[in-house]
Amino acid sequence: MIRQFIIATCISTLAVAAQAQTENKSIRSGNKLYKEGKYDQAQPEYEKAITQNPNNPVGRFNLGNAQFRKEDFAASEKNYDEAATASKTDDIKQKSLYNKGVSLSKQKKLQESIDTYKKSLRLNPQDQDTRYNLEKALAELKKQNEAEDKKKQQQQQQQDQKKQQQKQPPKPQPRNNLDKKKIEQFLKSLEQKEQEVQRKMQQSRTPAAGQQEKDW
Q: How far apart are CA 141 and CA 136, in angstroms?
């Protein structure tokens, strides 16, 4: 939850009072448009007030809110810082730091948001919203760190497995069916040739019909 802040500034001298009326008129106009959700139209009204008085913390704060709603987070954070610096009261400083912390959390800049919430909490230790957002940011940061550690462990395990596989000798490739068929045909051919040789040898050993054996 982002906070709005509306304040009327008391000015002592007439010359400054006239200027302050212009500032406050622009701020009131901006606040009306802001509440209606017309952030694009509210922003230039706040900018008018800042043009009249660059050190107006309320104008800076509300301009930061309009920029936040438009998701221009970098610009909103700058104006929250300016509001905190220009403010002479802890109330505006605390609210400015709180809203800056919300902006940082939106961008998942968790460590920065945690540091900002701590600064805000030092100014108002009783603020429950700041406490809640600080605890939430701490929990998210812990979860994020655990996820990163787990990812690194998985990557290391994959690297170790890859190295182990590279050390192991390659497994022999199994013979395919075509090689097996060729081998069977070759063995069958050898067997046929062997049978033919044996048959010829037997024929050469058997005497021809009518042939007399020599009497030595």
A: 9
| Token output for 7 | 């304040």
pLDDT tens sequence across 87-104: 999 999 999 999 999 999
Residue 4, SS3? Answer: coil
Q: How many CB atoms lie within 10 A of CB 82?
A: 21
Q: Above pLDDT 70, what percent of the chain?
A: 81
Q: Please give the DSSP secondary-structure letter assigned to residue 36.
A: T
- CB atoms closer than 10 angstroms to residue 72: 17
110, 141 in Cβ contact below 8 A?
Answer: yes
Cα four-point dihedral sign 104, 108, 110, 114:
positive
Nearest to 65 by CA among 88, 48, 43: 43
Concatenate the DSSP letters of all residues of 72-117 into one string: -HHHHHHHHHHHHHH-SSHHHHHHHHHHHHHHHHHTT-HHHHHHHH
pLDDT at site 207: 58
Phi, then psi, of 37 in degrees rounded to 5: 80, 15
Break the chain down into helix, strand, coil percent, rounded to 5: 75, 0, 25
Which residues have a Cβ under 8 Å from the Cβ of 19 and sit 6 or more positions away?
Answer: 11, 52, 53
Distances 52 to 108, 138, 168 between C-alpha atoms, Å = 35, 40, 77
